[in-house]
Amino acid sequence: MSERWGYAINQWKPNFDFFTRREQHERAFKTLSAAGFRAIELRAGTGRWEPLGRPEQVAANFGSAAQFLTYLNSCGIDGVSSLWWDPGEPNHEEPAPARSPLTVEDHAGIVESARILAQFLRDVGGTCLVARALPAAWRTGPLSSAQLDAAGACWSEVGAVTSALGVSLALHVDFLSPLRSLEDIGELLSRTDQELVGLALDTAEVSIAGIDPVALAKQHGDRVRHVHLKDARDTVGGEYLVPNAEKHVLLGGGERRIERWFWEMGEGSVDIRAVVDALRAHGYDGWWIVESDQSPSPPESVLLNAWTVQHVLAPRSGSGR
Questions:
Q1: Helix (H, G, I), strand (E, B) or coil at 261
Q2: Into how many domains does the chain fold?
Q3: Phi, psi torsion values for 244, nearest 5 degrees
Q4: What is the three-class DSSP state of 155?
Q5: In this structure, is residue 319 part of a structural domain?
Q6: Is residue 46 helix, strand or coil?
Q7: Which of 177, 188, 226, 287 lies deepest, with the highest CB count within 10 Å?
Q8: 30 inside domain
């Protein structure tokens, strides 16, 4: 089977009210197509400022999932690969408050939200729901065994729902997560149904958290169902525990005023080729999704990343795209 390469569109939304107009979408999609990427990863969102992030908004802006796919095709994009989702972000369409897989009372709401998003993803041709595994560590504190049990049960139930719709589930570990080691990630995975719940390996996020992504690929490669490829130059240290770390550390750069946490492949210290090789050795057959979060120039980042895919990461027999 040929490898499947796509690109996440999150870098085109640097602030709340950007990337909301059709002409902005068209320029982004045509840029990705010209660079050789023919699938996109969407980001779940809410309201009119996220016109691509919910089934209701896609219907309002394009008429239907089928019409949205026709629009993508007109821009040179074959379809949607996946959708990234954080159940901790409130949304107005259901309506739903912030929810946590660590809280048993939140599980039913998380499962229903996942059902809605998985149905939408199936309708636009996507195959993987990528879910933020846990809330940020500054919110949770150290996790108890009972909390990990609750999270594992929640995600196994979600995986059963998405699998029934033909969509896989992959848990995304970010650098603000309370999971801070290979062992921590293994503890959560061991509490989930391995047939229904996979891992989304994000090369930059785990590196910034202080986890070796190559070691992660080798140790847990059999559970990896989705991959985000981007580079990093810094580690977060203890600042992941700063209150409101999403704002003050992720977006604000923390005490060191980090300009960008995320970089184009080859511009940082992550051995991305070694990660890719390790996953290929495990027989990985999911999506390879390239990202350029926080890029000051998304089109330039796309071209730089495309060069790395074509000349560094492509299988020796060809690019696979």
A1: coil
A2: 1
A3: 55, 45
A4: helix
A5: no
A6: coil
A7: 226
A8: yes
